[in-house]
Specification:
6 helices, six-stranded parallel beta sheet, globular, alpha/beta, 6 strands
């Protein structure tokens, strides 16, 4: 199923909305990992990749060795390079793979015959990447059937630019997830 987390403002600033969405998303990831699943996480920002990884480790949900973070700071690392060259094989080594737009094109994870990831989660605000790009990012895992999109509400002056793309993105994720 597709679940969208779109917190609403109740006098909290935009940063409060982002934190609320991140907490809900991290809860979904932790629940899936505790149930024995493996998670593919995509983030609009490098900073978010680090925050999500740190939150999962701090909760004791996974160890540092069970998480692969790929962003502009880590992309030169040995594990990250191996992942980018052999994503199907290398992703199976991790319970959680967390990526920024650094991993944007040319990557396809199919895990032929034996799916590894049980949940896909996207964290974003829609300010740097469109819903279409977010979908492209999370759909690198070709077989996902459970997707959670944690998207913070946009300020009113930006909303009109994103409305059509966000609606198309929601419909595409719901279609992929079968609901």
């Amino acid at each position: 199923p597709f679940r969208e987390v779109l917190p609403r403002s109740h006098g909290r600033g935009h940063h409060g909305l982002q934190k609320e969405a991140e907490i809900i998303g991290v809860d979904a990831i932790a629940d899936d990992l505790r149930a024995g699943g493996n998670v593919m996480v995509t983030c609009e920002f490098r900073k978010t990749t680090k925050e999500i990884a740190a939150a999962l480790i701090a909760r004791g949900t996974v160890t540092k060795e069970e998480i692969l973070v790929v962003n502009s700071e880590t992309v030169g690392g040995e594990q990250q390079r191996l992942f980018l060259h052999q994503a199907d094989r290398e992703s199976r080594k991790y319970r959680a793979v967390i990526v920024s737009p650094t991993v944007e094109s040319g990557l396809s994870i199919t895990h032929q015959g034996k799916p590894h990831f049980t949940l896909g989660v996207h964290f974003g605000k829609g300010s740097m990447s469109t819903a279409s790009r977010a979908i492209q990012q999370i759909c690198r895992v070709r077989y996902l059937t459970k997707v959670v999109a944690c998207i913070t509400e946009q300020p009113v002056d930006h909303r009109h630019y994103l409305t059509r793309d966000m609606r198309a993105g929601r419909a595409r994720l719901a279609y992929i997830a079968g609901n």
